[in-house]
Amino acid sequence: MQIRLTVLGPRSGQSCDVLVTAPTGTALSAVAGAIAASAGTGQPARSGAAVALYAGTERLPANAVLGHPPLVDGAVVALQAPLGEPATQPSEHTPRLKVVGGPDAGGVHLLHGGQARVGRSAEADVPLDDPDVSRLHTVVTVDGDRMTVADLGSTNGTALDGLLVGQRPVPLHPGELLRVGASTLELQLPRQVGDDAGSPPPTGRTAVPDGEGHLQVAAVATPSPPSAEVQPAPTPHSGSRAMALARRLTSGRSAQARELQRLAEQARALRVRYPDPAEVLLAALGPGPRLWGRGAEHPDALTVRLGLADEPVPAVPVTVDLRDAGVLGLAGAAPQARAVARALVAQVAASHGPSALELVLLTSGEDLADEWAWLRWLPQCRPAQGQDCRLLLGLDPEQQQRRVAELTARVGGTAPRRPTVVVVDESSGRPVRGELTRLYERGAAAGVFVVQVTAEPERLSPTCGARAVLTGEVAAHLDVTLPDGTVVPEVVADGVSTTWAERFARALAPLREAEGPRPRSALPDSARLLDALDLALATPAKISARWAELPTTGGAATAVLGTAADGRCAVDLAQDGPHLLVGGAPGAGKTELLRSVAASLAAADRPDRLALVLIDGSGDGLWICTDLPHVCTYLGSTDPVRMRELAQALTAELNRREQVLGGRDFAAWQAERLLARSRDGAPAGGADGTGGPARTAGPRRPRPDPAPAAAREEPALPRLVVVVDDFDALVAPALGSPGRQSTGSVVRALDAVARRGARLGVHLVAATGRPERTSGGEVDEQAGLRIALRTDDPASSRLLVHVEDAAGVDESVPGRGYLRRPDGSVTPFQTGRVSGRIPRTATLRPTVVPLDWLRMGDPPTRRPVRELGNGPTDLALLASALQRAAESADALVPSPLV
Ligand SMILES: Nc1ncnc2c1ncn2[C@@H]1O[C@H](COP(=O)(O)OP(=O)(O)OP(=O)(O)O)[C@@H](O)[C@H]1O
């Protein structure tokens, strides 16, 4: 389990982000010391006892469980002192004042009774960073059920639904719009949230903790627009059309008033349909019914609201559909332009879940990076398509080039991908590196939409399908050019502060879309092979008893891979294979899976009935399996002479088997041999008639074959499994690799095994790190069983298992994979680990690592998983028990091929 926390040091202003990795169910006390040390307290990481940690104003108990609320992804913990003052709990009747438009929009202020002063001053109860607002501008008074508003002698005045308000209080009703400076406020009673326009009741959505640091949010049913949306309405971006309509009203004052009334109603419905920043925040905090409600099919997918226009009636939302625009250009002085860009990004992140949207940020300069740092909490910024980074960020030239290359690779591709919104912020004047023109010109066709932010309108790309240019002395208004060429002037822009954005994004950080009937969380993040084999106590007696129960026809070659959602995940090479191909990115867990396959095959049958040949195409990852008594031959990739010898020996073994079997199938031959032996009166415990009850283990040595004459004359013919790691390094050897000259002969021998092995009782289990290089070869073609562990891209996953899911596997879960069987079924599973030193009751040691947001766009460094203790590995324990079981069963160790 991994969660990201922000730790606030005891001195205010000092904070850092940390990544906490711990086994599920770990108590806070296990990492409290390390958390304190990471915040620079000078405290040694191990002394966790005296550390007081707070979530808000609540002190966290030492036994608080990591991964459960409040300790979920994105949480803030304060060291030694509570964070803020205890808040007065809102009752269900507490009204709230929302800032629904303007340069500092998005605020939601609870009105507990008495006076709430609105103004630019820090003393104001509702502070607004709006230059057109006076220090103390307006006062809203709550007296029981009665609410009033009065101007406080402001410079620019206060208006309520278009009518000026003086210093004498006037009644304020829910839904009325209060204009102060460039800001618009609205009073809301709790029961009203979502009431309008038939949207779901304000019950919020269930967010179920998964104990892994996340809250699962159930999917929204069908993306039907609220009923008000289907009325014929002035589209919000048709401000000028609506103006013309109003001008055409000639039939007297009452008709004109009625028409204006109708337009005002429609504007109100549109404000519900395209929510203001305050509603966006409430959707995230709830989580509310509108969160992640727009999928690809939704009529308003990727439609963003830029602000409010006052023609022909006040407060008509002006929106742009990014699918029409392709590139939306936003130009104007910082920080206003960035405040508007933040509001746009927050809207799409609130309305589209991570399965429907990917967000990428490209910008330069640390100041800008700080302004966008809130993005690090958004689930939509996490790479889910195999991108080589922890977050989809391009904050320096190298990261930018990587991100742009990943995005342009999609242009012209056919793979269906979730839509992507790319923010290119060049408002500091520093250009973003990479081939952006291609993206601007052709990105939309591949589902990549861009929001370009610049300081000057001239710097906007000519490909912008829509433009919004900040105007006016304090840059609070936008001149908007829509994709159809319509110009809407004087739009009061929606802007949000970085503080607002941080709060919004942290609320989203732990949320995940609950999956359907096959929840991914049903799979553990790690599994132990010995548990899956039911050999947690791997004693020789237990193994001997297991072997003694086997049928003696040389039948199964069962390899337990690990754990699937419904229990053990296993394959039978004899029935489902004959061969197994494993693929995955570096570090995905291929070598470990091959070790587990070798170990579980060995546990499944006696060494005289099942032999293993191990080949490392590069490195020596399989060497540690040579303690298994079933291993007759090991080959590394550095000795060209031995490689050629083994290639010849493998082919010779195939030929020998052809001869011995005399045209019969391996299983049929074994059955006949057994029959012959039982006619001779030999016991039926083992393939050579040497089975029977387990005896006390003796030294590991070949025993004289006591089989009767008929069987003794037959040559030994165990099932043979050839396990090959880094097969791609044999197919396409690196320049200068020592065994390069002999790899061709080994590959040809393996091809022969792939082609001829099925009938001869010879199987191949091969791992490839580059499926594109090995695809189409004999080994690939003949592999009926196929596994994709985490892949770098969807195409590799498709090559391996015909689905793209393996590209979405999180890097933090090595060994997670998808198994495809010959019948086309695909099963997710977690590889059972066998080379770990993981005692039955213990797991991985919890760690706390500082996170640097500027480096999250870099390729991640791969750290080996730390293990507990330095005792023997599970593999060593199993191998020793197998050796003793083989000796006590008098099972002959197979002879080496070379
Ligand atoms: N099933 C697993 N459970 C837990 N940890 C695992 C598992 N498989 C692999 N790992 C961890 O991931 C690391 C990488 O695994 P492994 O070497 O098997 O990957 P690989 O795909 O063979 O990588 P490469 O192609 O770079 O050799 C290992 O050091 C191990 O710590």
Automatic annotation (TrEMBL):
Would you indicate the residue range of the signal peptide?
Answer: none
Q: Which Pfam families match?
A: FHA, FtsK_SpoIIIE
The UniProt annotation puts the region (Disordered) at: 191-210, 678-714
Q: Which UniProt keywords apply?
A: ATP-binding, Nucleotide-binding, Phosphoprotein
The biased composition feature labelled Gly residues covers 683-692
Claim: ATP-binding is one of the keywords in the record: yes
* Residue stretches making up the FtsK domain: 566-798
Q: Which molecular function GO terms apply here?
A: ATP binding; DNA binding
Q: What CDD domains does the record tag this protein with? A: FHA
Please report the stretch or stretches of sequence annotated as the FHA domain: 116-165
The record's annotation in PANTHER family points to: SPORULATION PROTEIN RELATED, TYPE VII SECRETION SYSTEM PROTEIN ESSC
The protein's name is: FHA domain-containing protein
Q: Which organism is it from?
A: Wenjunlia vitaminophila (Streptomyces vitaminophilus)
Q: Taxonomic lineage of this organism? A: Bacteria, Bacillati, Actinomycetota, Actinomycetes, Kitasatosporales
